[in-house]
């Protein structure tokens, strides 16, 4: 049935060579810099302090003349000024039609404003991403992420409506049995959740006496809000556990847009889908130097809004550390691809080497079915710098015999050392003992 639909949401944008897209981006960038300078009290003062004239920013390369905006700076913009959205509110309350916020789990929340135009642009861009991830008008979609305040809530419902599928706004609050019962009642064939929740639900379905492959009709899955799908063992666990045709990753950031990248049918890296909305740069997280978008380059993603009216950010540090590809994809899209390896704020520095807990999980996951794929790094004190030897808890499956554990410990230790230069104390824990998350997995725990 899906064959009746066109392959691309926006064929021209998705298949035009990147150099031609850059012309469009630079035109929008020049307008946006003028707009920001003239309408944002925050950036007006910052540009003056930094000695940046908006007219100096003509090309994508020129962006490096502007210092980064980070989360603490963004947070400070809410403290001053007479506007509800603070000093970086660049549209009047009359023009702003919706306000979302960050979760506020790591400090006071920050707010994101949207004008009517911003909402239209978002809907189109998010729909483009979900279309790439395989959602079609004939689908019944169970959407199980937070709907309250979260940019992954109502904006996603708007975008799915734009696609025209039948969306079930389940949200994140209902229990797993209700979620599964509704999916079963409605014969839902698509679901969108974090990878942690998609894994958790497999176990929940089994606990309810349901066979996830037979008793539910899920065919397609799209993931978001945390890394995980780039790890082959997790994708396979979800795909096989649910008996899916496709399981694709998406990436977004509240400050910019809910979804900005999505995987195509190759399921190998996410296409950067919104070059008309955002310029993405790659930087060295330690030095701030710009890294060329060459094939297999790695760095932190930094974003600049080029078509945003309400609360636009310039060179905003995402703290997502990614690997990128530039080669042509078989799907025909010419846009670059990215895969997030981990969050720079989750990263630990052990013996001078950067280690991402997600990369550790990926390495350990290769030993399935001996292990379950759940791990936790235990530290004496908060990172990133780790002084002593960290403990790595690895969950082993119930079928493992005591006598096999030493051999497994050696093999895991060897892979971690050779691939990541990471040599933790490996501690095996029994199946089910690492806490399952319904939202995002906590891969690091601090214990005195
Ligand atoms: Zn592709």
Describe the structure.
The chain has 448 residues and is α/β, with parallel strands linked by helices. The protein folds into 2 domains: 343 residues, ANL, N-terminal domain (Rossmann fold, 3-Layer(aba) Sandwich), CATH 3.40.50.12780; 99 residues, GMP Synthetase, Chain A, domain 3. 29% of the residues lie in helices and 24% in strands. The longest helix has 22 residues. The structure holds zinc ion. The site of zinc ion has 6 residues, from loops. Pfam families: AMP-binding_C_2.
Q: What would the average pLDDT be, to the nearest integer?
A: 95
Helix vs. strand class: alpha/beta
What is the radius of gyration? 22 Å
Tally of DSSP helical segments: 11
How would you sum up the major sheet? 12 strands, mixed
| Total domain count | 2
CATH topology-level fold name of the largest domain: Rossmann fold
